[in-house]
């Protein structure tokens, strides 16, 4: 989703802003821009497409502001919501003497725009963001007080947003506001005063400062290089110091690196949470589980698929009813929220707008809430009663890989933990499951032979009219996830189906140009899935079988190892699907890490 950076200091502001935007590329964007204010001088640059296009514009125009003097700047990567991807619609947005960048959506922008047009303001973009800068100048022209004008402006805005605003009327200040969209502020003390850094995530801040504030909703303020004032009391934290995550470590793509590191990060997810005899979650108070008669899981995209997987495990192990909801639809069904329901939300970023709103609904209804998340200090972690961090590290590939594997492992551990707490499983069974959990990292290891097999097969799957990914039990949500990965990065049509549903309509599409990716685990309904695949083969669908057991009807066959448990097969097949999708995308010449039209974190509804 859109990214924000800002800086006050004496260093090369354009360089700092552009490097900060590069750290946010993983979030997805279609345009980028910066504005640098040095006393009464202003430089504004915008570009469509990659940040390198913006960087070229800056270098060609020989932007030499702030080499020695104090200057301030703001920057933005935009993912279009209101208005098409154009330079006019790219941020920063300009008034007569002020400039703004904004993440989120201003829900009442149309009403405000009509009001401002009637007052004589002229708009040049199609965006909701532009109303912010015009509204600020409208109030400043009345009071000649920038702080008052900013306060008046943010009072008028409805929606979710984070804002940075600079103005020639106060050329040493950045005004900021956070409401429903993430914003962090870091500071670094130098001989010339404090350097202040702004960003919508940690990534652009690491290495520049040690101290950081993660703004809570409703907090606004103003910054100079010598002072920071906030509308409410804030607490300072310490930034991490390592930028190793930003390096590809010799891999071609971040996605490839992240597929390969799943074995390690899943180990981190389990660290301190499993012993020989029990599952340990210090983050969960006993009263969260007490009196729970239903579990409701809510998420979007890949996290939703992890949630469906977890629903099988929760019901199977805890004997408690478990439902899974798509967060983007949750509110519209006017859901029945009973206080004996445990509400679990899943989000890689902790900022997914639809999931966040669902969490707020559950909290308002008095439900006990848990978030499974990868980002501490995110909005969801601050709202939920309990937070279970997946510890996956920053995921820079837009198409999630290690987010899914760590979420699934954490949810599996939670299911075992809850089951033991409500006495629905025996200690002996739990110990066996713990031993299986310890084998998960090896199941996620990418063998050279496997990767080479996927690479060679990929050239067979570059055409056709679509893909069916099919599986049963937990391999059904794995099929959904496999289809999503292929769609995201190859732009080929793919659907995930429960294998038994093929004969209820979809099998009508079967022909040689329909590719079936069949998940055929040895330890989960093998005979039934085999029968379903035979039906598709009889109708000439091209079959790619993924299984430890030989299957004579397969046109292509990816042999997995003989595992002792269906969840170990699950994770090994997950790796196969991820690598195969990536290699197909590579063959097609697509941008694996930044697929078109997608954003890493969807922080608007």
Can you characterise this structure?
- The structure is a single chain.
- With 605 residues, the chain is of the alpha/beta class.
- The protein folds into three domains: 3-244, Glutamine Phosphoribosylpyrophosphate, subunit 1, domain 1 (4-Layer Sandwich), CATH 3.60.20; 249-444, Glucose-6-phosphate isomerase like protein, domain 1 (Rossmann fold, 3-Layer(aba) Sandwich); 446-593, Rossmann fold.
- 36% of the residues lie in helices and 24% in strands.
- It is built from 18 helices and 24 strands.
- The strands form four sheets. It has an eight-stranded antiparallel β-sheet, covered by helices on one side. A six-stranded antiparallel β-sheet has the order 5-6-7-8-12-13.
- α7 (262-270) packs antiparallel against α14, α9 runs parallel beside α13 and α15 (448-458) crosses α18 (566-588).
- The longest helix has 23 residues, at 566-588.
- It is globular.
- It starts with a strand and ends in a 17-residue tail after the last helix.
- The model has no long low-confidence stretch (mean pLDDT 90).
Q: Could you write a compact summary of the structure shown?
A:
The protein is an alpha/beta fold and 605 residues long.
Task: Please outline the helices and strands.
Layout: E1 3-9, H1 13-23, E2 31-38, E3 41-48, H2 51-60, E4 71-78, E5 93-94, E6 98-106, H3 109-118, H4 130-143, H5 146-156, E7 159-167, E8 170-179, E9 184-190, E10 193-199, E11 211-214, E12 219-223, E13 228-230, E14 237-238, H6 254-260, H7 262-270, H8 286-289, E15 294-299, H9 301-318, E16 321-326, H10 327-330, E17 341-347, H11 353-364, E18 368-373, H12 379-383, E19 386-389, H13 402-421, H14 427-443, H15 448-458, E20 466-471, H16 475-490, E21 494-498, E22 514-519, H17 526-538, E23 542-547, E24 556-559, H18 566-588
Parallel strand pairs: 15-16, 15-17, 17-18, 18-19, 20-21, 20-22, 22-23, 23-24
Antiparallel strand pairs: 1-4, 1-10, 2-3, 2-4, 5-6, 6-7, 7-8, 8-12, 9-10, 9-11, 11-14, 12-13
Helix pairs in contact: 1-2, 3-4, 4-5, 7-13, 7-14, 9-13, 9-16, 13-14, 14-18, 15-18, 16-18
